[in-house]
Fold this protein.
Amino acid sequence: MLHGQTDTLAIDTASVLTGRNYIKPFASSRMYTHISPKELSNAPVQSVQDYLDYLPSLDMRQRGAMGVQGDLSIRGAGYEQTLVLLDGVPLADPQTGHHSLNLLLPPEMYGSVQVLNSGASRLFGPKAMAGAVLFQTAPAEKESLFATANAGEYGFYRLAAGYTAVAAGFSATLALQSSGSDGYQPNTDFRQQSMFSKLQYRFKKGKVWLNYMAESRAFGAQNFYTATYPTQFEKISGSMAALHWELEPGKWKVRGNAYVRMHQDRFELYRQDADYYVRKGTRYIMGTDTVPAWYTGHNYHQTRVAGAMANASRSLRKHTISLGAEWRQEQVVSNLLGEPKTPVLVPFGSDSAMFTRETSRVVSNVYAEDYFQWKNWILSGGILFSHSKAYGMQWMPGVEVAWQVKPALKLFALFNRGYRLPTYTDLYYVRGGAVGSKDLKPEVANSWELGAAMKRQQWRFQAALFARDADKLIDWVRLNGSMTTTATNLTRVLFYGADGSVQWVPKGEAGKTLKNVTLGALVMQASKASTDFESNYALDFVSSRITAAATLAVTEKTMVQCMLYRQERLGGYFSPGSSSETPYPVVYSADVKAMLTAGSLRFYAEVANLFNSRITDIGNIQLPGRWIRGGVTLQL
């Protein structure tokens, strides 16, 4: 899907990664979404998470503002079933998928964002059961400088700056960002800082580059995980170093990476702060409220992930053969998750907390793929074998076919099998009315897609029918009348629906004012509903969504971008003290941004949630109403 393209149809000349190889978008044998850096910078959003909320096939269930935390899913799948990658490195955290969107970049540092629907396990392994979102860093091939200062209501601020230097095949990039807010309601404040660096060397036969990023984030987590204990708080920090290579020795193309990722999480079920709960002895007290005796301290988790992958491909006449392997080790040390261990002091704790548990696992993948073009046909197929000690060997096949009926019309179909291992939270968590289960089985799903794509002059269109037959779905559920939320494998569930988009980029006189219009839609259903229990994730999906975006040129130097959506979500949630579910409200939301360019400066003003709609993505978490912001960016 082409969403919000602001100037030309240059995407037709770009190459996108669909599978193991870079190809032209219209040569893809599945639906695709490609977001350019210009689309991100022109959109009335402050984070890439906010932008993804406007894509019909994606469900960005946010808990806080400005990308503080959100759960990303594709076509109604659970957030744990969608893999997020940065330059090919999976950001999946073995503790919980709630951290999958951590360690992302300032919006100015993205080269592109791509979305692969209908399963991608045969391409990227078990975590991509329902699909994958691929973030690419900016190419860093010319000298550039940017600086941004934003401010708005609720004490919001965002400061960011970055510089890229280039010399004799080398390039070096450094970007820093700091943002925060006092919160749009009590206990929704946040502060976050991040840095990103990239060192790259390009030579005749390819390029190698090293990414390093780090972040820290602290935020009030009002009702984030349970409404029974509303005044929650979380502080996370993380870092990742990744070495990448793309080489072309002879007739082969070789790509790969090796990476190490560290992540620390301090979760307070009762926020410890001078204005909230203070620790007195072994108890936490706020005014006359003393926490239960069972709460003796906060949750501390530290995950360490190391991995490497290598892929080699070669063209043989009409075939492009790809072979590869991947190895990944996931470890957690915690005071709550894993098996008992010799206690050690938590290095980032502040209340003499001890790490008393740990566990780890190794997942290995090998795969083969063939991309074949013959006359008007495209056939792409492959298989991935994945092994872990706890769950044995699993195989994930997939096949995709496209028929170029006419130069401007393509029909396509695909099948992919997906697979997902439980996280350590699914397996071990026991606290605050939530209980994990060590007996959980991995999820499996078979995905199908049948669709069409067309491009004709100023028009672009694509649509698909899809189905996902999922078995042993992992969800956190609460039965009617119960106070406990339990991790469990649901019975078999069939998800099915349709989605698509159409874009018009007018030419001539109309194109002088109206730069583009994009419409998107999704409808879907499932064979099972949460009629006698509260489903936290698996069955509370968006059943219908309509999106629209338009870009207008008011003057030669002034642009206005509008983005709107309407959505309905199935299921509901239990409010504190209620014995019946509250259904999710129908949401109407609109964001508007006006931009004025003056030389190297661009000034902007934006209004998020223009209609001041009541938005609830996850039960009992009220998202912000209308929010006015503005700022200026220097780009050299």
